[in-house]
Amino acid sequence: MNDIARKAGVSIATVSRVLNNNGNVNEVTRAKVQKAIKKLKYHPSRVAKRLRSKSVSSHMLGVLIPDIQNPFYVDVLRGIEEIAYNRDYAIIMCNFGQDEKKEKLYLEILQSEAIDGLIAAPARENDPLLKKMVKEGLPVVCVDRGLEDVEVDMVVVDNREGALKAVNFLIESGYKRIAYISGLPSIPTSRQREQGYRDAHLQNRLTLDEALIKHGDSKYDSGLRLCRELLNMPDPPDAIFAGNNLITLGALEIIHKMGWKIPQDIAIIGFDDMVWSNSLNPPLSAVRQPALEIGKRAGELLIQRIEEPGRSCIQMILKTELMKRSST
Amino acid sequence: MNDIARKAGVSIATVSRVLNNNGNVNEVTRAKVQKAIKKLKYHPSRVAKRLRSKSVSSHMLGVLIPDIQNPFYVDVLRGIEEIAYNRDYAIIMCNFGQDEKKEKLYLEILQSEAIDGLIAAPARENDPLLKKMVKEGLPVVCVDRGLEDVEVDMVVVDNREGALKAVNFLIESGYKRIAYISGLPSIPTSRQREQGYRDAHLQNRLTLDEALIKHGDSKYDSGLRLCRELLNMPDPPDAIFAGNNLITLGALEIIHKMGWKIPQDIAIIGFDDMVWSNSLNPPLSAVRQPALEIGKRAGELLIQRIEEPGRSCIQMILKTELMKRSST
DNA sequence: GTGAAAGCGCTAACAT
DNA sequence: ATGTTAGCGCTTTCAC
Fold it and tell me: In whole angstroms, how far apart are CA A295 and each of A60, A76, B4, B117?
């Protein structure tokens, strides 16, 4: 910046002014400076900018997600990214893979990176570090999962209702022994979906066999393992409600491997739709979360909050949609 | 840092020393400082650190990938991330969605973020901006795609050979009219795979019907559309070689929708394996790229280069593996 | 072993 | 309309 000031025969303050289109600058000076900038192939340092002014936006956002292998989070991320891109924000992506130690480390990095704001799907609803960061004034919006005891913007889906609809649909279709393969029980969404599953049984006065509820860890392998246990039961289920994307795919692998026919031998419906649900054979029924939209809304909410830190918190609950295809 | 210096009754220089475990510090002074750090819940600012010393590592890496919806890149990313995490690097993830304008913007951001190094799968092999950054001394390693005219580390897969193996296998299995659904022809990997496809025909003296080669844009929808065109031909193919993940999934959707049986009516083999290839019905045959390993190797290479900028460039060519399952 | 001070690239208040 | 200057939080020489 010094070089360009010298080259253009002005002070660096003037350079800063033309760079930021801010303050009054004579047209001819501006032109001179512009030329020097071009000539010297100058690139502003976002780092210095951020250091200088906490008050001014660094145009850097953090995103903290649990599992980038899960297509749901990929779509959320894409939604966030789309908004960020349009508003000229860059993103630091932190994928903690359901590992709380890693999550903590990332949170610390994010903190010391002086980001403008953070979109997070925290592992635990009472994560102390994250709560602290919120209290210290960092704009945060939670997606998919909330945060206890503190005021934050939230974009979530009505998980209980989504599960309820899915299981009701299964029951209406005549299935009697419906299994639930749950993700990590410590994750709120897992519990909410289980609640919907239970409520559907209640509403329909269908007795629920607790042995049909399997708790896993939200990953592919647990879907595989738990589904095998289910199919090997002396009295196996006639339908499966799978707690998330990856669990569904794991379950499908076993079902096909054991040669069971869908939906004749066993029906399956997943929580989370995927772009390629139709590529499956048969096409998969699923509870669709508007993942892209969750990401977009979260991005918008975050940028709003950055621009107007005072505004009160918003909790957005998006609707799920039951995608009836041929697996049920 | 000032606060903690004051609190501990030392100078900020000393604080810096204990923070970085560097230089000689008296044990008792060190203890005092440590205590003050704890008390004041001090967090170092990575931003200031980066500003101060270009010489010292900022511990920030950039990753530039074309399409995060493609599970292949997700795995590459996971590989990179694993290495980065272990070596205490953070990652700025830039997903440009095959959009060159976006790619350019991201490259500029990365540049002004003072990252230590960059892992990129550039849209074009002769991207001028990226080439400039390499020449200016930014450590870069390319994955999946190379960069013309400049020396960079590269981690790629032998695409031609992978395709060759796949199509040879198809031919040996008795298929005669094998279609190729290509990704964007401007992407080198698309062309290399096409070359392998052609070579296989040559080697087996099988005449190749140019009408069976369809060029798309590497995305789901193009797989869908081009596969439909193929199946609707008066003289349709008996096997399909799909240029990537997303194309495969799009093709599968149409095949199922039109009620064709795999592999009786049509065989299909994809380039890129997926975790859930076994979840498909029938399980999908595929050319497996060791995506996670590509990411890891790239991460290692990059960190190596950051630590030893002088070392000469390495070009790593990883092997593909033919996963024979039931779709062929 | 420790402190003082310069400076990384930038912005903003204040002067001119 | 433009220049001067004081820092932002840190590292690193150079003294002591």
Answer: 16, 4, 40, 28
For residue B51, name the pLDDT band (cuts at 50, 70, 90).
Answer: confident
Confidence at A178, pLDDT banded by 50, 70, 90: very high
B20-CA/C3-C1' distance, Å: 17
Residue of B297, B273, B296 whose CA lies nearest to B285: B273
pLDDT at A54 over 70: no
Other C-beta atoms closer than 10 Å to the C-beta of B319 total 12
Model pTM score: 0.91
Collapse the DSSP code of A213 into the 3-class scheme (helix H, G, I; strand E, B; otherwise coil) and give the result.
strand
- What's the Å distance between residue A152 CA and nucleotide D4 C1'? 43
Residues B299/A243, Cβ–Cβ less than 8 Å: no
- Rounded CA separation B61/B113 (Å): 10
Residue pLDDT, tens place only, A207-246: 999 999 999 999 999 999 999 999 999 999 999 999 999 9
| Total number of residues shown for chain B | 328
> In chain A, where do the E strands start and end?
60-65, 90-95, 117-120, 140-143, 153-157, 178-182, 213-215, 239-242, 267-271, 285-288, 315-318, 321-323
| B247 touches B179 (CB < 8 A) | no
**CA–CA separation, B40 and B279 (whole Å):** 52
Q: State which amino acid sits at residue B299.
A: G
In this structure, is the CB of residue A57 within 7 Å of any atom belonging to strand C? no
> Encoding tokens for residue A63?
């995103």
Any idea which of A143-147, A252-256, B20-24, B314-318 has the lowest mean pLDDT? Answer: B20-24
- Residue A313's pLDDT is what? 95
Q: What is the DSSP letter of A312?
A: P
Q: How far is CA B171 from CA A47, A122, B132, B165, B207, in A?
A: 56, 50, 44, 10, 12
Q: For chain A, what is the largest distance between any 2 Cα atoms, rounded to a whole number of angstroms?
A: 87
**CA–CA min distance A205, chain B (Å):** 33
